[in-house]
Amino acid sequence: MSLIQLRTELESFCRNRGVVAFGVAETKDINTADAALAPETFTRLPFAISLAVPLSSEVLATLIDHPNHLYEHHYRQLNFALDRIALELVWRLQQSGYNALPIPASQVVDWENQRGHLSHKRVAIAAGIGWLGRNNLLITPEFGAQVRLVTVLTDLPLDPGAPLKHDCGSCYRCIEVCPAQAIKQSPTDFDHRACFEKLKEFQRQRFVHQFICGLCVRACPGQNTYR
């Protein structure tokens, strides 16, 4: 089987399981300095496959001014689904003679800095799935910020994508709804500390049991909203 045929098969395999975006990036093009993985991992596995699944718009519609248990459950189930898809993709890659490592969809290793093993959004941006929005989340053309991500590192030499030349343009919906006022004009000015303090407040109020919000996600539906 050629590399093109294998990629087509792998992408079809993922899309049949609910994946709406499948992209590839070379790890050398991603900032991995703060990744919780040994540097040699990226040498052994120089390609990253980025996968996205959509959130339910109806679940997001239940969010008014704080997160709720319905959203928390949905968030967790999507992460479980992504991890399962990534695991099955790894099995398919191994059966084809390649090495692969699934990176957990939402296993945070540093809550203060909201950091996981590897930044899924950096991988997705490098793969051309979307761009970094004002809300510090990945924004896709079709689904906006309403996706969850997972990454599989591999030594399968796939043709990488290229970053999209897009931004949020004149859309400021996320700024208007942010309860922490953490979102600014530029993504580089996003106030991580203010965001995290609000997440802790939501947890103390028992709206949810983990540090999530979702209000800026609800406000960013995509579907050609951006110009």
Task: Walk me through what this model shows.
This protein is an alpha+beta fold and 227 residues long. The chain is 35% helix and 15% strand. It has eight helices and eight strands. Strand 6 (131-132) and strand 7 (138-139) form a beta hairpin. The longest helix is centred in the middle third of the chain and has 27 residues, at 69-95. It starts with a helix and ends in a 9-residue tail after the last helix.
Give the gist of this structure:
With about 230 residues, the chain is an alpha+beta fold. Helix content is about 35%, strand content about 15%.
Low-confidence stretches: none
Estimated share of beta-strand residues: 15-25%
Quaternary organization: single chain
Order of helices and strands: HEHEHHEEEHEEEHHH
Count of DSSP-assigned helices: 8
The description of the largest β-sheet is: 4 strands, antiparallel
Helix content: 25-40%
The assigned structural class equals alpha+beta
Q: Averaged pLDDT, please?
A: 93
Distance between the termini: 41 Å
Radius of gyration: 17 Å
Provide the spatial order of strands within the biggest beta sheet.
Answer: 1-2-8-3
* Cα shape: globular
Number of strands: 8
Fold topology:
Elements: H1 3-15, E1 21-26, H2 39-44, E2 47-54, H3 57-60, H4 69-95, E3 100-103, E4 108-110, E5 115-116, H5 120-127, E6 131-132, E7 138-139, E8 147-154, H6 173-177, H7 192-204, H8 215-218
Antiparallel strand pairs: 1-2, 2-8, 3-8, 4-5, 6-7
Characteristics:
227 residues; alpha+beta; two-stranded antiparallel ribbon; 8 strands
